[in-house]
Every structure is written in C-alpha cells, then in structure tokens.
Design a protein that fits this description.
Layout: E1 5-7, E2 10-27, E3 37-45, H1 49-69, E4 84-85, E5 97-104, E6 109-111, E7 129-141, E8 144-158, H2 169-172
Parallel strand pairs: 6-8
Antiparallel strand pairs: 1-2, 2-3, 2-7, 3-5, 4-5, 7-8
Length: 186
C-alpha cells in the first residue's frame, strides 16, 4: 500500500481492489438513467491500519462539517456512515476487508501508472487494483443523514481476475483450433 494522502475530507489510498465498477458510464441499479452514477466499491484489507486511520480521519472531518453546516450543531442519531465491514456482506471476496461505495455524478479521471488517460473501458473493471482518490461529505436527504463517499479519480495499478464470473474472449477461445475448419462446409 502507498502511504495514504489525507487533505481534510479527501484521501488518496491504495492499491485497492475494485468491485461493482461502473466508471465509464453511469449505472442505475433501478434502471432509471436519471438516478445513474459513476461508482465502484473500494475494498480495503482490515490489516491496512494506516489506510483505515486516514479514511476514518477524513470521515470524522466530514462529520464535523455536517454538525456545523447540516445537522444543527449536533451529531444525529442513526447517522449513516460510509465505511462498511465486508464480513457483514455475503460475498467471500469482501471477507477480511472494509469497503466504501464511492460514487460521482461526473465521470472520474482514469489514468494508468504513467498518469496517461485510460480510454479503453475494458481496462477498468471489477477486480482491477487501483490507487483511489475519494472525498467524504455530509448529507441530509429526505430525512436521512450521514456521511457519503465521493469518487474523484482512479489510477490503474494492476490487473487481476475479473469479478462476476466474466472472462475475456481470449480466455474462452484459448486452444480453439481454427486453422483446419473449412468455411465452405458451413
């Protein structure tokens, strides 16, 4: 892991594995494009104490902002927080991890390790490892209050197995001999 960079409510952490990744086009779980967001889950191993300390400091800074600007000078009861325990999720990939669901209304910046823009959507997928820039912020919407996680930018770190069961076309057709087929027989 890199040494986390913290600037108030903003942190840069990683490399972290990404899951449920939709960073080139907005995703809407209910199918309504108006509700769509760019998003990804960021998995943080529970052993990464320095990274978790940085995240918690940024969340606390956002919480303090909310107390002053949104919640009438006090911490609300049942405040929704963005750092989730992966052991509570029924997905073995999340075991022994914490995770945040980072979202944005605008497309995040996406670069490679040389800081060159990535334009091929196949390069950033669920399962890839990335350095992540996120910002925590307070909210109050329809009576719900909490701290959310905004997605700023991503730097691809390395490839790994795709999550969700999808494999590449190259892997599916590896070993298929196409040289002896006669097209005229079809």
């Amino acid at each position: 892991m890199i040494t986390p960079k913290v600037n108030g409510t903003k942190v840069v952490i990683g490399p972290c594995r990404l899951s449920y990744t939709h960073v080139f086009a907005k995703h809407s779980p209910n199918g309504d494009p108006a509700d769509g967001k760019y998003q990804t889950n960021v998995l943080i191993p529970k052993t990464e104490k320095e990274t978790l300390k940085a995240i918690n400091a940024a969340i606390e800074a956002a919480k303090q902002q909310g107390i002053v600007s949104k919640w009438g000078g006090k911490t609300p009861k049942n405040l929704s927080m963005p750092l989730n325990d992966g052991d509570d999720k029924e997905d073995e990939l999340y075991e022994n991890h914490f995770f945040v669901n980072a979202k944005a209304n605008t497309r995040p910046g996406i670069v490679d390790r040389n800081k060159q823009p990535i334009v091929d959507e196949e390069e950033m997928y669920s399962g890839v490892w990335a350095i992540v820039s996120i910002t925590f912020f307070p909210y109050e919407v329809s009576g719900n209050k909490g701290v959310a996680c905004g997605l700023n930018n991503l730097m691809k770190w390395k490839d790994d197995d795709r999550l969700g069961g999808r494999v590449s076309a190259e892997a599916d057709f590896d070993g298929v001999d196409t040289s002896s087929e006669d097209d005229e027989d079809l």
